[in-house]
Amino acid sequence: MTRRKPASGPTSLQFFDHLRWLDGKPLLDTIEDYRRWIFTQALDNYRPDGSPQYSMVLAGRGKKNAKSLDLILAALFTLVIRRSVQGSDGFILANDADQARDDLMLAKKLIACNPDLAAEIEPLASELRLRDGSAVLKILPAKDVAGAHGKSAAFIGYDEVHGYRDWGLMEALQPDPTRVDALTWITSYASIYNVVGAPLHDLMAIGKAGTDKRQCALIIAGGDAAAQAAKAATMTIPIVFAAFAVLELMTSSNFVGSMIGRSPGFSPLRIRPA
What we know:
alpha/beta; Rossmann fold; eight-stranded mixed beta sheet; two-stranded antiparallel ribbon; 8 helices; about 30% helix; about 20% strand; disordered C terminus
């Protein structure tokens, strides 16, 4: 049984409701219903012992559908609101240097136009640091994160994994198994490596099969995002996957997945226990 976030702190949507988008409009007004549903399911559900319900979120859509923005918003929520005695450091790993620069620039713009965020966060060259020095969110190209192996992060975000051919990086950066509050957030559109052993293929196969007792999954066909959100709102299973179609047809489809538990964590489908 899950429960909503305790009253001691704001929910994700309450947090976003205090922020402005880059054009000055209320941020929450720019977040469609299906994206609000994703944030609520992913960030505001807790176990009876008070630990977060989900340790992994698989959030995919077509291009230009706010995948990277939602990743950044989830990371900021974790950094500012989900403070942890085990540390609140985080990473966002981009495909390349250009994408990392774009992600960092977007995060800095959000901070610049929101005084409340600016009061909490100091933007630096390649990271965002809490002004009290307690945590850092680093935004880097995936190839530059080798030194982070073995560190205990509260948040690990992967901005587009469609190009990942194997589990090497994700296994090296798998969350600390002693942390019940660590969150991994993965964005992507359809992968060209649709074979067993490619992370996106394996994660979707696990979700669609519904065989992993730590992961609930519901298949919803790709299509209009608003219609999917309306359907999702009537479901008791809090996980939605959209069926991946041809890349050119992916402009409005979306899926969400969550994985519960830490061990074996990121192990590929072929070596996961029954």
